[in-house]
Each structure stands twice: as C-alpha cells, then as structure tokens.
Amino acid sequence: MRRYENIYILNPELPDDEYPKINEKFQNIISAFGGRMLSFDDWGKRKLAYEIKKFGKGYYFVYDFAGTAATVNELERNLKIDEKVIRFQTIKLEDEFDIEDYLARRETEQKMEPERKIPEEYEPPEKDDSELERGEESYDEGDDSFEKDEDRE
Hints:
Layout: E1 2-10, H1 18-32, E2 36-52, E3 55-67, H2 69-81, E4 85-94, H3 99-112, E5 137-139, E6 146-148, H4 149-152
Antiparallel strand pairs: 1-3, 1-4, 2-3, 5-6
Helix pairs in contact: 1-2
C-alpha cells in the first residue's frame, strides 16, 4: 500500500446539507477499492487564490489515506465526472506504507500527549496597575488618554 493525500474543492453555492453527502460518497469509493482513511479535514469555505470556473470561493476537503493505484484512479475518475467538484489534486506521500505500524505509532503518541483542558469558567487574570513594568502604558477607562508609569510618579 501507498500513502496519499487528496484535496478537492467543491462548488461553494451548494446547500450546506449537500457537502457531507458528497464527502461520504468519496470516502466510500476509497473504502470500496481497498483503501483506508487515516485522517480527514473539512476546511470549509475559503477564498480561492484566483477564480476557478467563475467561483471566487470554494468548499475544501482534505483526505489522508492509504491505498493502491486502483484506489486513486477510481477516486480521481469520480472527482473528474462530478460537476460539483471544481478542482482536485492527489499527492503520493509514501511508496511503502505500513498502515498497522502507523496506527500503532499514532495510538502511543496520543497516550503520551497530555490532555489540555481549559476550565469552562476560565478568565485570564487581570493585570493590576501595580504589576506594570517600568515604561508600560496603562489605560484609565474614565480618561481617553494613555499615560506612562513614569508620568504618574
């Protein structure tokens, strides 16, 4: 198996409920031809660098998957004939790809990464004027002017 990355851009004027259906269709093609999805990113609507088929924006999807040449050929064939797709590109990332090794490494990395949670009621601490360093500016809400610490003394 080889590892590939595919990015495709859809017509931005489609109804919002249409994007998941199209995405599922292409993921099913990858699975049907022996491929395995490694990751998937929905980038949403973004501005294009230049107009494509008279569109200034597009809806982006990115796939990272493992598969054979037949998997890529079928995926690209379907991307070409789907009128909703305005542009796509597939890149081969690795020639020899061991999916089991990749999944094992990813699992151990996730276990080692500390879980970072921000409390729901988190508020950053307010800086007290006494904590201002020399030369830092402070703002008085009642006054529309800024003053330096040096000027206050």
